[in-house]
Amino acid sequence: MMRLPEWRTRAACRGRIDLDFIDPRTSADAAQCRAICDGCPVREQCLGDALAAGEAWGIWGGLDVDEREQRAEQHGHPAPSIKPAHGTNPRYAKHGCRCDMCREAHTAYERARR
C-alpha cells in the first residue's frame, strides 16, 4: 500500500473532503482553500511535493495549477500534468510510481508480454 508523506498528518486541510473536488479557478471555494493554506504549518512541504509530482489538480500550498506551472518553470520542476491512474503499467513504467497497485499492474503487463 502506498504511504502518504508524514507532513500530510499535520496539514490544515486534513479531513476536509468538502474541498477535495473543487475547480479552484472558478469555484467560490478557492478563497476558502487559500485561507486554509495561508495558516497551514506544512504549506511549503505541500507545495514542494505538488511541484515535484507535477500535480495537475486543486490548490496545493496555496497555489492553483496555473500558479504552480509558473513556479515549476522558474525552479526546474516538471510542468503539471495528468498522469495515468494508479494500478496501470504506464503509471509504473513512465511515471515511476511504485505503489502496490502499479507494481501489480506492471507484473501482469510483463507476464502478458512474454
In short:
Helix content is 45%, strand content 0%. With 114 residues, the chain is mainly α. Helix 2 crosses helix 3.
Keywords:
single chain, 114 residues, mainly alpha, 45% helix
Write the layout of secondary structure elements.
Layout: H1 29-38, H2 43-53, H3 65-75, H4 89-93, H5 100-113
Helix pairs in contact: 2-3
**Apparent shape:** elongated
Number of helices: 5
Unreliable sequence segments: none
Which sheet architecture does the biggest sheet show? none
| Distance between the amino and carboxyl termini | 27 Å
Average of the residue pLDDT scores: 85
Rounded to an integer in angstroms, the radius of gyration calculated over CA atoms is 16 Å
Describe this structure in words.
This protein has 114 residues and is an all-alpha fold. The chain has helices at residues 29-38, 43-53, 65-75, 89-93, 100-113. The radius of gyration is 16 Å and the shape is elongated. The mean pLDDT is 85.
